[in-house]
Amino acid sequence: MDMTGLLLAAGIIGAIGIIIGVLLGIASETFKVEVDEREALVRAELPGNNCGGCGFPGCDGLASAIAAGSAPANGCPVGGAEVADKIAAIMGVESGAMEKKVAFVKCKGTCDKTRVQYNYYGINDCCKAAVAPGAGEKACSYGCMGYGSCVRACEFDALHVVDGIAVVDKEKCVACGKCVTVCPKNLIELVPYKAKHLVQCASHDKGKDVKAKCDNGCIGCTLCIKQCDVDAIHMDNNVAVIDYDKCTNCGKCAEKCPVKVIV
């Protein structure tokens, strides 16, 4: 092989390599994306559950939002106050008082207290059973079906089905909100951890119809409202609802409730 040809080929390849390198260098400077180093520091402090409880697409999304100033330092419900304080230090802001919340299931229709309209034989999944005639075997169309979709959605072992209804372990719950999202009956809500009195019913039926289906349902008698001195409880479409910002946890409503649905 001609040595001149080899040298020419090597020279051409080398020149092409230099040109490509220069072009890549120019492109990297032209199209580079500025990264806030605080975002990486914030992401390192987040727990990494990627549960979405913060309202952003995982921990990366929240870290980006906090660094950009569009989310608060205490935006992670899983990390709690400890993580919020660390992130606040990174961002140079106050973490702010963050009220701990937990999930609460608005149903007290245990197996021995609620009527059964038929025997359900199918997949143990609330979302699938909800589209079946009657939306599950329990007579109350508003109540917990007890097939455990929320239990399977919880990554923290904070939910279990006990006697036909989902029950939350307050000490394990981190208020990520996955159970809230997955419940087809919208029975689960996030409430203040400190709340001592909660209405464990979501039925909008009138009293007579409620009693025909469940012994533990709110009958809309309004006795709880009459007992409250701080205007913290009202009727909403036949069911009592507590305003936790006003409630003082005095317990008068629970004492007067004839069906003991305020727990």
Q: Specify the CATH architecture of the largest domain.
A: 2-Layer Sandwich
Rg, Å, rounded? 28 Å
**CATH level 1 name of the largest domain:** Alpha Beta
Spans of at least 5 consecutive residues with low confidence: none
Helix content: 25-40%
How would you describe the shape? elongated
Amount of beta strand: 5-15%
Order of helices and strands: HHHHEHHEEHEHHEEH
Total discrete domains: 3
Name the assembly state: single chain
Structural class: alpha+beta
How many β-strand runs? 6
Distance from first to last alpha carbon: 93 Å
Strand sequence of the main sheet, in spatial order?
Answer: 1-4
Average pLDDT, to the nearest integer?
86
Number of helices: 10
CATH topology of the largest domain: Alpha-Beta Plaits
Sheet with the most strands?
Answer: 2 strands, antiparallel
